[in-house]
Amino acid sequence: MYAFEIERPATVAAAAAALGHEGAQALGGGQTLIPSLKQRLASPAVLVSLTGIAEMKGVCMSDDGLLCIGAATPHAVVAAEARARYPALAHLAGHIGDPAVRNRGTIGGSLANNDPAACWPAGVLGSGATVVTNNRRIAADDFFHGMFSTALEDGEIITEVRFPIPQKAAYVKFVQPASRFALTGVFVAKFAGGVRVAVTGASETGVFRWSAAEAALSADFSAHAVEGLAVAADSMIGDLHGTPAYRAHLVKVMTKRAVTAA
Amino acid sequence: MAQVTMTVNGRSVSGEVEGRTLLVDFLRGNLRLTGTHVGCDTSQCGACVVHVDGKAVKACTIFALEAEGAQVGTIEGMANPDGSLGVIQQAFQDYHGLQCGFCTPGMVMSAAALLAENRRPTEAEIRAYLEGNICRCTGYHNIVRAIMAASGQDVPAVAAE
Amino acid sequence: MPKDHGIGASTKRREDVRFLTGRGNYTDDIAVAGQAHAVFVRSQVAHGRIRSVDTRVAAAMPGVLAVFTGEDFKDVGGNPAGWLIKSRDGTPMREPKRPVLAHGKVRHVGDAYAAVVAETLAQARDAAEAIVADIEELPAIVDMRAAVADASNRVHDEIPDNLCYDWGWIEDNRARVDEVIRSAPHVTTLELVNNRLVPNAMEPRASTGEYFPGTGDYKLTTTSQNPHLTRLLVAAFVLGIPENKLTVVAPDVGGGFGSKIYHYGEEALVLAAARKLGRPVRWTAERSESFLTDAHGRDHVTKIEIASTKEGEFLAFRTETLANVGAYLSNFATVTPTFLHGTLMAGNYRVPNVYVNVKTVFTNTAPVDAYRGAGRPEATYSIERCIDKLARELGMDPIAIRRKNFIQPSQFPYTTPVGLVYDTGNYDAVVDRLEEIADLAGFAARRKASEAKGLLRGLGINSYIEACGIAPSHLVGVLGARVGLYDAATVRVNATGNIQVMTGAHSHGQGHETAFAQVVADKLGVPEASVEIVHGDTSKIPFGMGSYGSRSLAVCGSAIVKSVDKIIAKGKKIAAHMLEAAEGDIVFEDGAFAVAGTDRKKTFGEIAFSAYVPHNYPLETLEPGLEETSFYDPANFTYPAGAYACEVEIDPETGKVTVCSFAAADDFGNVINPMIVEGQVHGGLGQGIGQALLENCTYDANGQLMTASYMDYAMPRADDLPFYAVDHSAQTPCTHNPLGVKGCGEAGAIGSPPAVVNAVIDALQSGGYKVAHIDMPVSPARVWAAMQG
């Protein structure tokens, strides 16, 4: 690692001020950022830790029935505290990384990084959640801009994520055997107004909605409904662990399994 | 350099660290608690697992300054007050749950965190919980048995001597 | 009733206490006062000509004490190959120099061409980044077939076809094997890849060099499986330090699996730097460096043919193999694909005709050398996969075809067509044990249950034989070894009767401190706790060859027994003197020396005390002291054998293979500590199943390592593996060592890969998929692709 200072602000406002300085970078749980710092892939002057900000932590229900997760809440806490209200989301949080990673890694950090194989983007996009920052509210459909790219501006801090709670939902992932990230993960959520299907791990453009499946499942919420569909392989990731064709195939298999599990 | 203070194995400690000083470097370098090991640089092997405020954490993936004021537990604090092996440690010895010993501190710390959350984990729950702890020697068989034994359960017949 | 102490008891390991309490003492745990830190600058390209290395900026950076490049070591020796192999035409292998730091060319990604020593690790890293190298990138040589086909592109300029050797075994068999295969009623052919692996001992390599100017002594503390061998190589061959001026200490070592047998350039660098600076210099690998520079394993491409009768009687085996040796010859790289592979190519079978051809090839990849099993897994995989294919083609049961061809107990000692003499074995008895512990009778019902869940279930069977305790020195010398393969032990009985055993073996997970003490305590009738095993320090132990190839008990343990026997003989002399009896009348039993047929005796403790307080010894005939050293050179290899059964389920929608059960029945001869033996088998199985399903070291066409971290190299985790059923009760003790032991460290890694792949093929065939073979690792993507046809 290159040398840097660490600041630990106690409020969002203080964090935003700290991030306004040249060379400042936000530090969530660090479970992705610290390994990349070790490789000297980044050289921040200051890391602004967001994990000491009380107002960014915790899981609660809003008056309008949304599940609100503070952006600095570790996955393990989400897994425990969201279980009763939104079990599919709790399940997702409870299967990210490993137990020690879940004790540190946060939803905000994961979303800001937008790794194309991360789980949280699927849960957020699949739920049609709202990403709340220190400046604004961003609909999930507007938030993800492709691999490692989001709508966030420099210095903007995710403070909270608000999830509408579907009638039924499930997240099923098929893991890459080495990293245990999603080789393909599918989040399916059935709302009164229709079904959302979000896919992570598979596409070169990052998390995406599979609209054909959404239409089919909105008409008939059963695994059978997606049987005749296929995802085009041409935008899928191809690497050591799976060809584009294999990932395209897994998208369908995982979608069916998620529908069955929901 | 900055000053950091925390409680490690019940003892208040402090030291001078850089921003980039990892907790594991503080433990191994400043405190000379070398039982916590570093086996990888991508936060996956788990040889460095310690407890921070009661939770299992990879000490290679948290800065020392982030543990300011925390209660930190390491393998050196796991024995009984009289120095004898704690229940989990003893089970690892009884069931031959270690060979070269390098992953062992992290395994024991993860096992302790698991049993704190789940007093009677199933075989599948144990294997799932150890996802972030890599052992190259044992094939995991005896580690799983040791944790089952440490939780007071009969080890499965298939795994019996 | 299981024994509770001594030989045959599952004594709990004494070393565990320090490991479980954080008091282990690994190389990186040892802080030496005044230590400086070394960081290596490693090639980013697979193949390139070094035009210049500019170290001026780095040398002037804060904290920097010294900078080294290949130029600094161009006049010292190279790291040598330990075994000279001759090609079929009688010419010696090609043996390029392996320098401490790359000079002239870099030959693989990770090849170190410079090093920085600084006050702190961070300063050394910063300075390493400031070194500017002008390296002309050359086309990378990665694929072995292309390497031997294209003489214009060379890993080493002086080696035109990138070939180390073209080895035939046994060349005299060749014509007959060809003829038998040409005229055989049935021939099965299989082309397969034995996938390249990264050993991944959990402790990364680390070394600290020290120099003591007052005496001119050096000390190297390092992660080694064999400190004397490392001392010999770095002192005599590389740096030219007199051996007597260098102590090598291998303290607690966190796993080796072969990768820590070898001497590496980093060890030479820290010693040379310590000498230059007059300060201790340390280096600890990051895991990413381990991936790039630890000697890798396997990496064979093989075509095997088995000729048989229509009834499944084996007539001939023939293999052609390309073996990747990487960019340089690691110390035992040349023997692994030859004498540790070709000589095992008869398996457990009465096959009259065997011929093996191995071409070993230089490529722009990390060096490849022995990894757990070393040659024997490759042999076993080829034979056992091809037998499985043959059985399927002939419509035979996979166990029946193996039983039909097993060497029979009455045929031992059995001379194979590939040069080995198996001393003993009973392969049917091992399979009998397997059938029981694997509950093979219940497989059909289990398959039905899996099918009811929509899963394909398969059963894979294999048998294996291996050769441990590679020896004897006179034979390996004829075959090209540049080392002897004996071992040594000193047994020192102290005046108060407790015992220190100095062994040439090194324990890095195997539990020698416990098991060796069991042997000595049993033989001398003393408590295990009074026996201390000392290992890993050349200043304390006799010249031994260390631990690898499952040799520790069979070879080093035999040296200990020899010394114990000498202790008893000396004790009898002392007792005869003390009891005023004839030496021939003294018997040693139950820990006491007695005059036969009388109640006159001296305890072991009385004898020990007397040996060091020899007030009235007849010094012309009886020396004081009670300490004996022995060197033991075995008469033959030992031949553990076994039979394994694996059951898998395949999810046909995803191709994911799950190992449902794994049973291993082994014949290790006599067993000292069953708990430790079973643990060794478990670990080997974990690695073997990992090879079969998960692990794959892959370079791209430019020689970039694609699997350079745990993000892409799939290590087996707890939830990838099942509980194992293991059995070692079918024992045929080794006939030529005093303990009757054979070795157990590698068996699991040798026998398991073909069992897993055979099970996968069986499962697919049961589902109607006509898949004859899938290369390892049998990943979900590969299985799914195979199912698509």
Give an overview in words:
In chain A, helix 3 (75-81) runs antiparallel to helix 4. Chain A is of the alpha+beta class and 262 residues long. Chain A has ten helices and twelve strands. Chain C is of the alpha+beta class and 789 residues long. In chain C, the strands form seven sheets. Chain C has a seven-stranded mixed sheet, sandwiched between helices. In chain C, helix 17 (674-693) packs across helix 18 (747-766). The radius of gyration of chain C is 27 Å and the shape is globular. In chain C, 61% of the residues are buried. The interface between B and C is large, with 59 and 60 residues.
Short characterization:
The complex is a heterotrimer of chains A (262), B (161) and C (789). Chain A is of the alpha+beta class and 262 residues long.
Helix content of chain C: 25-40%
The main β sheet of chain B shows up as: 5 strands, mixed
Oligomeric form of this entry? heterotrimer
pLDDT below 50 for ≥5 consecutive residues: which ranges of chain B? none
Strand order of the main beta sheet of chain B, please? 2-1-5-3-4
Shape of chain C: globular
Estimated share of beta-strand residues of chain C? 15-25%
Compute the average pLDDT of chain B. Answer: 95
User: Strand-and-helix sequence of chain B, N→C?
Assistant: EEHEEEHHHH
- Gyration radius of chain C (Cα, Å) is 27 Å
Proportion of beta-strand residues of chain B: 15-25%
The overall pLDDT of chain C, averaged over residues, is: 97
**Number of beta strands of chain C:** 28
Outline the biggest β-sheet of chain C: 7 strands, mixed
How far apart are the termini of chain B?
54 Å
Distance between the termini of chain C: 55 Å
* Shape, per Cα inertia axes of chain B: globular
Q: How many β-strands of chain B, per DSSP?
A: 5
- Derived from helix and strand composition plus strand pairing, the structural class of chain C reads alpha+beta
Key structural traits:
heterotrimer, A: 262 residues, alpha+beta, 5-stranded antiparallel beta sheet, 4-stranded antiparallel beta sheet, 31% helix, B: alpha+beta, 5-stranded mixed beta sheet, 5 helices, 29% helix
Please render the helix and strand layout as text.
The complex is a heterotrimer of chains A (262), B (161) and C (789).
Chain A: E1 5-7, H1 12-19, E2 24-27, H2 33-38, E3 46-49, E4 59-61, E5 67-70, H3 75-81, H4 87-93, H5 99-104, H6 107-113, H7 120-127, E6 130-133, E7 137-139, H8 140-143, E8 158-163, E9 168-175, E10 182-191, E11 194-200, E12 208-209, H9 211-219, H10 244-261
Parallel strand pairs in A: 1-3, 2-3
Antiparallel strand pairs in A: 4-5, 5-8, 6-7, 6-8, 9-10, 10-11, 11-12
Helix pairs in contact in A: 3-4
Chain B: E1 2-8, E2 11-17, H1 23-30, E3 49-52, E4 55-58, E5 71-73, H2 87-94, H3 104-117, H4 123-129, H5 141-150
Parallel strand pairs in B: 1-5
Antiparallel strand pairs in B: 1-2, 3-4, 3-5
Helix pairs in contact in B: 2-5
Chain C: H1 16-20, E1 36-42, E2 48-54, H2 56-59, E3 64-69, E4 105-106, E5 112-118, H3 121-129, E6 132-137, H4 144-149, E7 163-169, H5 174-183, E8 186-194, E9 206-212, E10 217-222, H6 227-239, E11 246-249, H7 265-277, E12 281-284, H8 287-293, E13 300-308, E14 314-326, E15 353-362, H9 376-394, H10 398-405, E16 414-415, E17 421-422, H11 427-437, H12 443-452, E18 456-465, H13 473-478, E19 487-493, E20 499-503, H14 512-524, E21 531-534, H15 552-579, E22 586-589, E23 592-595, E24 601-603, H16 604-612, E25 627-632, E26 641-650, E27 657-667, H17 674-693, E28 724-727, H18 747-766, H19 780-787
Parallel strand pairs in C: 1-12, 10-11, 14-15, 20-21, 27-28
Antiparallel strand pairs in C: 1-5, 2-4, 2-6, 3-5, 7-15, 8-13, 9-10, 9-12, 13-14, 16-17, 18-26, 19-20, 19-25, 22-23, 23-24, 26-27
Helix pairs in contact in C: 9-18, 14-15, 17-18
